[in-house]
């Protein structure tokens, strides 16, 4: 299959909108009053918020296909590419750990796992796979990982429980993390970005690479869109059927969660590609493109800015508390006030993103 590289507005915008959504759900006005779709599912199940992180990992996979297909076509030495892949992964991982240390820098309480850390690992593994395997091997590897992960989580007795368990902190992934994962856990005894559950999240990245190959294929654009959606819908259905015996669960990134979210990402990207790049409906995409141009930088900046908006006390209350209380005092429902603050925080983060974009400054970790 001949590959044809091109710049896709839909992909750039989808990356940016995903980061904007990630910031919105991470920084409400108050965690005590949040609309349910803007929260992660407590355990089994799925909400709108649960799609955001897998969408970003999927886009990482698509971006790998675009970036390294071009490098391979130009005959770049693999050794040089390996070096850059490893360095970039280390930088993203290190920034994630640093964010976990801010503001107290208490190394005895440092959390090694995290969102950026998982992105770093997924990028590292997927990029190396892309350079050394074709799409068929990547598909076989994905299927094997999802099935073996299911067998491990569903059939291997959880130590201490005497039987396979899939409960918060009481499951094989949590047990493995308790032995191998250093540092503080997000949930005390377990971590949603732990080691073992990173395996199926790598599959999410591989799905993105497969989608990238379709978008790069030398076929007519409508067929690319059709292929993406034709793959996405069956993946969702398989995931939903499989969920009858292996629940959809983001916290341990079950195989069914990977399929449902990955299939949805295929479908959304296909539809977005059709609407934006084929039909030319580009109105509103500029916001996503600006956020997406420095996606990880904006994510890091949001985490730093939150220290000011949540930590700075004025008159005994933080800035977010003043905002929510003020809107509640004039009669707005407190959940709506909390969401409006989250949208305001997204808008505030858009300002530096816009400045960087206008100055053509693209910070690549």
TrEMBL record:
Alphabetically sorted, this entry's keywords are: Acyltransferase, Membrane, Transferase, Transmembrane, Transmembrane helix
Q: Where are the transmembrane segments?
A: 12-31, 51-73, 85-103, 115-132, 139-156, 195-215, 227-246, 252-276, 288-312, 332-357
Q: Name one Pfam family in it.
A: HGSNAT_cat
Reading the lineage from the top rank, the first entry is: Bacteria
Q: Coiled-coil stretches, from where to where? A: none
Residue stretches making up the Heparan-alpha-glucosaminide N-acetyltransferase catalytic domain: 7-218
Q: Does the keyword Transferase apply?
A: yes
Looking at the keywords, is NADP present? no
Task: Give the Gene Ontology MF terms in alphabetical order.
Answer: acyltransferase activity
Q: What is this protein called?
A: Acyltransferase family protein
Query: Which organism's genome codes for this protein?
Result: Negadavirga shengliensis
